[in-house]
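Good morning,

Attaching, inline, the backbone tokens for the sequence recovery test we're adding to the shared suite. The designed sequence is right after.
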């Protein structure tokens, strides 16, 4: 639909005026009263502000005051909207705005690249130390921008007369604004590259690489632990049993940490990871073959390493709209890195030398002693540092 048809007279608005619009007071001075609504009685007055953030989310706030709201049209208990309940609705706010905000929520339609999304609804609490205008309330519609989306379109189906619509990409110094008639659809608003989240395929590729490179070449401590597991077993089956236990354990704690269920300081986790390297390497020297408790021990140490992975992934961040995709992809990348370490070690050491009588004395024991020494150095360094 063309701009002229929508009667949306767009222009660039300085940040100072936009801030004034948000307060509601300057709006009356600059823009004047709303044109008469299409309905026989006036439902009220509102302003809509849509912000698109660099974390891949959007936030739309509908600001309403009760200056011209008739109690019969506006107040009363809020009903369940097509998007669900409105969170944070106090009884006092419902008394003034319940029906009207239900009407606005049901009439709101959010589209990215022509596809409708379902936002979360909530009442915006007053800012700490703020002085909201008496009788004013803000309804927030929020959610994740679909991966790769480039345009945004807003519709308010309720016949509420004309209202100002303000749109802004985070990081832009100015905002696009104009008047929109109730029931009309805005022209497409172009999202900036800074706020467009990656597509699912892009997330998979990125976090697979991040997981793999966290092991090779960056994860020296994890590499030494995997080599420590590898050195004790000449046969493939016992080796895979240990690797499977390690994988299950670190996958468990990685997920629990990122969902906020488990948390442990890196000052504790990092020295313990170094100790796990020492323990496995020393056991290789003292024990000539795999014992039943070895798998349980590797599982326990895998829980520690999962906490280490979680710390790294927390620093990297996960896209909100593709949290699970990023988590799974990172973990798969980690597994690929671990298997690559085992494959190289198997080809260079086990395959040509494992059947030699001197394999243990010349390869397993010296290599394990070196790994234990490095692990002990790291443990002391991480405790002291």
């Amino acid at each position: 639909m063309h701009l002229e048809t929508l009667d949306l007279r767009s222009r660039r608005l300085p940040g100072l005026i936009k801030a004034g619009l948000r307060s509601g007071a300057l709006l009356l001075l600059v823009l004047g009263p709303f044109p008469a609504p299409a309905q026989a009685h006036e439902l009220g007055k509102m302003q809509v502000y849509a912000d698109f953030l660099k974390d891949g989310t959007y936030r739309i706030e509908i600001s309403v005051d009760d200056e011209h709201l008739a109690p019969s049209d506006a107040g009363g208990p809020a009903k369940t909207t097509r998007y669900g309940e409105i969170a944070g609705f106090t009884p006092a706010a419902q008394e003034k705005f319940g029906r009207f905000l239900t009407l606005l929520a049901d009439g709101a339609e959010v589209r990215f690249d022509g596809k409708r999304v379902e936002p979360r609804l909530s009442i915006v609490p007053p800012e700490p130390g703020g002085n909201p205008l008496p009788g004013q309330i803000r309804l927030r519609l929020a959610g994740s921008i679909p991966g790769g989306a480039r345009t945004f379109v807003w519709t308010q189906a309720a016949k509420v007369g004309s209202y100002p619509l303000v749109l802004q990409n985070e990081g832009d110094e100015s905002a696009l604004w104009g008047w929109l008639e109730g029931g009309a659809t805005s022209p497409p608003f172009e999202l900036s590259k800074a706020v467009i989240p990656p597509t699912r395929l892009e997330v998979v590729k990125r976090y697979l690489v991040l997981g793999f490179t966290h092991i090779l070449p960056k994860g020296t401590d994890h590499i030494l632990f995997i080599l420590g597991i590898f050195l004790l077993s000449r046969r493939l089956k016992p080796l895979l049993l240990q690797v499977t236990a390690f994988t299950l354990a670190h996958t468990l704690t990685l997920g629990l940490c990122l969902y906020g269920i488990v948390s442990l300081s890196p000052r504790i986790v990092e020295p313990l990871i170094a100790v796990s390297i020492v323990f496995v390497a020393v056991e290789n020297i003292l024990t000539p073959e795999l014992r039943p408790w070895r798998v349980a021990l590797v599982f326990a140490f895998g829980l520690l390493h999962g906490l280490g992975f979680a710390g790294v992934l927390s620093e990297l961040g996960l896209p909100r709209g593709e949290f699970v995709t990023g988590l799974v992809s990172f973990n798969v990348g980690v597994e690929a890195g671990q298997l690559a370490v085992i494959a190289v070690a198997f080809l260079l050491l086990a395959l040509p030398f494992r059947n030699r009588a001197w394999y243990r004395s010349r390869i397993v024991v010296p290599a394990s002693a070196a790994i234990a020494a490095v692990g002990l150095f790291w443990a002391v360094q991480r405790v002291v540092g």
